[in-house]
Amino acid sequence: LLNGGAVVVIDQDQVLSRQGLREVLLDQGVTVLWLTAGLFHQFADDLLPALRGLRYLMVGGDVLDPAVIARVLRDGAPQHLLNGYGPTEATTFSTTHEITAVGEGSIPIGKPIGNSRCYVLDARQQLLPVGAVGELYIAGDGVALGYLGQPELTAERFLPDPFNGGTMYRSGDLVSWQADGTLRYLGRADQQIKLRGFRIELGEIEARLGECPGVRDAAVIVREDAPGDKRLVAYFTGETPAIGELHERLQGVLPDYMLPSAYVRL
């Protein structure tokens, strides 16, 4: 809007239809598109004709698949393809990286945008040098005030910025600085994962599973037996009721997106 553009609102049915989304992008002459990583990975091949006409394609919100990125660059490259990184608490991009080629390893998450600062810190919250793996802390104008009605969690995640004043957000993401000044994402410092756009604490599912009668030990992981098909799988020991009853019990205490799709007794 600040640059004289028009917003194209695409309804849910069209978004979830590969052909419908492609037709809207072409018919409306869309020039700038933002897609979550999940949608991008599913729809990229079908959207190639529309992607070629874009000035900017921004993707992010999760780890990008280098193979999909490589196909887009080869067969449907927009003028600019950006990887946008940033948790909701930093509203919403904190770093961007323009992708021009796919090398070895993960796609970098880039450099801080204007009015954002990024620190890679060790366990004592000391700055780390290039190449060292540490936790990413984000500061600057985009950082939120905290979590509504959750003072303890706010105090844990939103900390005083000792380097430039103000507040910095502890992301829980492990990163390292590269020699070219970009950041590379290397995983989580805790058990939090992202599945189909939802943040999930695996430990919370394990705790609820451990409360079920007869369950002695429990572990929950994300499996990807088929490329792009991630699902939660719960492993447990002990004498338990039927797995159907276990699932039904978890349905009463967890949202649908946190329910395991398979249970394995060990």
Write a brief structural summary.
This protein is α+β, with helices and mostly antiparallel strands. It has helices at 12-15, 18-27, 37-51, 66-75, 151-157, 202-210, 243-251, and strands at residues 32-36, 56-60, 80-85, 95-98, 111-112, 116-121, 134-140, 158-160, 167-177, 183-188, 192-195, 198-201, 215-226, 229-238, 262-265. It folds into three domains: 1-85, Rossmann fold (3-Layer(aba) Sandwich); 113-189, Luciferase, domain 3; 192-265, GMP Synthetase, Chain A, domain 3.
Characterise this structure:
The chain has helices at 12-15, 18-27, 37-51, 66-75, 151-157, 202-210, 243-251; strands spanning 32-36, 56-60, 80-85, 95-98, 111-112, 116-121, 134-140, 158-160, 167-177, 183-188, 192-195, 198-201, 215-226, 229-238, 262-265. The protein has 266 residues and is an alpha+beta fold. The strands form 4 sheets. A 5-stranded mixed β-sheet has the order 1-2-3-4-5. A hairpin with a 2-residue loop joins strand 11 and strand 12 (198-201). Helix 2 crosses helix 3 (37-51) and helix 3 (37-51) runs parallel beside helix 4. The chain is globular. The N and C termini lie far apart (56 Å). The model has no long low-confidence stretch (mean pLDDT 92).
Topology of helices and strands:
Elements: H1 12-15, H2 18-27, E1 32-36, H3 37-51, E2 56-60, H4 66-75, E3 80-85, E4 95-98, E5 111-112, E6 116-121, E7 134-140, H5 151-157, E8 158-160, E9 167-177, E10 183-188, E11 192-195, E12 198-201, H6 202-210, E13 215-226, E14 229-238, H7 243-251, E15 262-265
Parallel strand pairs: 1-2, 2-3, 14-15
Antiparallel strand pairs: 3-4, 4-5, 6-7, 7-9, 8-9, 9-10, 11-12, 13-14
Helix pairs in contact: 2-3, 3-4
